[in-house]
Amino acid sequence: MLRSLLSASGANPGMITVFIDGYFEEPLGVAQLFGLRGIQHTPIGTKSARISQHYKASLTATFNIFPGAKYAIILEEDLDVSPDFFSYFGQLSRLLDEDPSLWCVSAWNDQSYEHTSKDPGLLYRVEGMPGLGWMLKRSLYKEELEAKWPGPEKVWDWDMWMRLPEVRKGRECVVPDVSRTYHFGASGLNMNSYFHDIYFKKHSFNASPDVRLRDLKSLKRKNYEELLEAMISEATVVDHSQSPCEEDFIPEKRAKAHVMYIKMEHEKDYTTWLQVAKVRNLHRGWIAKGVARGVTGDVDSFAVFQNLGPGCEGLSPRAVEIPHEGQPHPCHRSAFLRVLEAQAFGCDADLPGVPEEREESVAGFLLATLSVSSTLVDPRRPAKENGREKIPSASPRKCDTIL
């Protein structure tokens, strides 16, 4: 990691500090070999609590060592960085300063795979806190996070804590289409070789040394949501009567974005999404890590996650708006968007099954829970039985994917 970091354009060894959790001579010697400052401290807590306390101690020390620094960039030792790593953060620091609805910039995109991400100049807003190479403001840490940071008695993951609604407070992070870090560590407290091969091995990674990020003004919340709403209203709705396993479910060649609607029983119901993500070979481990109310730029396809309220029967997908913070649409209590530029896969192995057929009012346009034998509902052709809309059953379809 240190070799790639120091090779990145703009690297200043005097501004880099290596924090070591414990008194180990080997990592301290490596830091000194590269001419870098190394700081050791006494471990506090166990397991996740120890890691959490290491992060807190490192952040506090960083802002004490550099009292004039407005930002800090945090990296783990199992990451390589892109040649434009510092340029990427430098271009986005002003946006982080100007937009109070943002609280971090990350070099990592959970959905940045070789088959989904090609544009190093493209950016998104996402909920949560992606981590794996990220920047935060001094004011955020010193005025909010430092005093509230979980103590050593709480065996919590620090990043999961930061994603809690009461901590995040509706703020979002900026991520790139093509990641600026690459995760190579295959073992650790929360990592093993199988998980690494599944989720990290084929992650995209920018190799260009000089990338100019585009349309930074469009990332401000109001501009971003307006752009997203326009993209959804103009997008082509996919044929929901088809299985996502079909090669042409999302056409390989398309002139504009495609949209699919996924039904949710409640705002934390990701049953359908987990199956769709598996079929389309996307990260499905924790949905909110890469989710936002919207996406921006030349997006080929995306999905809208819908949690319907009462009184929404007969509503057209085109009428559904992206909710603004604190102003939920009466028929759209929560909406999240995913980049779903997809690659076709074979369809041979079983998916985890759920009941073949579900019968209920679905407002005429959303998805049934995807299973081995139920398909997406075509919003333009709702089926009816006894005056009620019914999820049409389909012949069993099996999907074989990498994930």
TrEMBL record:
EC number: 2.4.1.101
Membrane topology annotation: Single-pass type II membrane protein
Family annotation (Pfam families): GNT-I (PF03071)
Metabolic or biological pathway, per its Swiss-Prot or TrEMBL entry: Protein modification; protein glycosylation
GO biological process, one term: protein O-linked glycosylation via N-acetyl-galactosamine
Cofactor note: The cofactor is mostly bound to the substrate.
Major localisation: Golgi
Names of required cofactors: Mn(2+)
Annotated localization: Golgi apparatus membrane
Gene3D superfamilies: Spore Coat Polysaccharide Biosynthesis Protein SpsA, Chain A
Enzyme class: transferase
Coiled-coil intervals: none
InterPro entries given in the database record: Glyco_trans_13 (IPR004139), Nucleotide-diphossugar_trans (IPR029044), O-linked_mannose_GnT (IPR052463)
Keyword tags: Glycosyltransferase, Golgi apparatus, Manganese, Membrane, Metal-binding, Signal-anchor, Transferase, Transmembrane, Transmembrane helix
GO-annotated molecular function: alpha-1,3-mannosylglycoprotein 2-beta-N-acetylglucosaminyltransferase activity; beta-1,3-galactosyl-O-glycosyl-glycoprotein beta-1,3-N-acetylglucosaminyltransferase activity; manganese ion binding
Reactions catalysed, as given in the entry: N(4)-(alpha-D-Man-(1->3)-[alpha-D-Man-(1->3)-[alpha-D-Man-(1->6)]-alpha-D-Man-(1->6)]-beta-D-Man-(1->4)-beta-D-GlcNAc-(1->4)-beta-D-GlcNAc)-L-asparaginyl-[protein] (N-glucan mannose isomer 5A1,2) + UDP-N-acetyl-alpha-D-glucosamine = N(4)-{beta-D-GlcNAc-(1->2)-alpha-D-Man-(1->3)-[alpha-D-Man-(1->3)-[alpha-D-Man-(1->6)]-alpha-D-Man-(1->6)]-beta-D-Man-(1->4)-beta-D-GlcNAc-(1->4)-beta-D-GlcNAc}-L-asparaginyl-[protein] + UDP + H(+)
Cellular component GO terms, alphabetical: Golgi membrane
Start and end residues of each stretch annotated as Disordered: 378-403
Family: Belongs to the glycosyltransferase 13 family.
Functional note: Initiates complex N-linked carbohydrate formation. Essential for the conversion of high-mannose to hybrid and complex N-glycans.
Protein's name according to its UniProt entry: Alpha-1,3-mannosyl-glycoprotein 2-beta-N-acetylglucosaminyltransferase
Lineage of the organism: Eukaryota, Metazoa, Ecdysozoa, Arthropoda, Crustacea
